[in-house]
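Work Package 3 (structural annotation) set out to generate three-dimensional models for the target panel prioritized at the project kickoff. During this period the team completed the workflow that converts sequence records into discrete structure tokens, so that structures can be stored uniformly alongside our sequence database. As a representative example, we reproduce one entry of 341 residues exactly as it appears in the project archive.
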Amino acid sequence: MTTLKPTDTPPKEAGKAYALGSLCGEVYYIPFSKSAMRLLVTGEVSEGAIALVSTGGSKSDPIGFHYHREAHDVFLCLKGHINIWADDQARTMGPGDFASVPPGITHQYQIVGDHSEFIGIIVPGGWEEFFRFLGEPYAGAMWPMTDDRNPMEVLIPRLKEAAERFDMVPQPHLKSFEIQPWADEWENNALPGAVRPYFLRAGNGPAYQLGGSVVRVLASSKESGGRFAIGSLEGSSFHRNEVLAVGLVFPSVHHAFHVVEGTIEFHVDGVSVGLTAAETLYVPKGKKCQIRFVSRYAKTYVFASGGGLVELFVKEGSPYSSPIIPETEALVELGHIQQVN
């Protein structure tokens, strides 16, 4: 079997599976931001369906309120902390915390801490061109901590032009307000079931077991207007996980997997790749994908351009309440799953 090795940058052509190494991607530095944006999946690759962007940075000022006419933003904190303002809500988010910001909702973020990381899907794909226009290609290890240039010469003119060219409407008259505590309303297992802004605390949200694996849903097609679904997929080498091992094909849904714990082996149309923490795999629609957990415990986030793998677990799995993966693997009617797939 052919082996696929993680690379530093994504390809330009559509319809090709690829893997990216830790903190890799098409990297851009936004002047004065103390951060780097990494394009992991682009509109070119996904035929305009989705983009996946990760950001790493150090403590800096809020980026400024704005909204998008068409783009739906999400923020999933992976490391450190970030502040997110969305409409009239504001939270400090830690690892595993999630925020969804639909089109038309005024929002901003602020990186907090020495080294914070977050990742998010953008739909439709193509809006990431904003980062290419505003940012500067960056080849360093992390990101610049100082920038002695004049922002009135380097950044502000570009920001004004970007606001005219892209789906980004600045709201400079709005001021930051105090971060709010996480309220009980957002600490239960319910998703809003509609397209509106919301925050979800790590470990919450509905969970579903299929075989020995568990998906915890962060956003379904109900929260995205049918545009995407996001969840975490957890499993163990102690279980067979036949549904994932045999392979699934989603004819119209693109997937991206971002591993956060353990080691997972993927086979995509006969090509294998093993991924560990902070590595990413893109699987185009129509490609057969097999998944095998190599370590005792492994976890990956799943980003789908539709219901995809996340909602397969919702429809065919059983509600699950334990905070850890099951000790016993549930029986699965494999033939039925394959017919559904």
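The chain has a mean pLDDT of 94.
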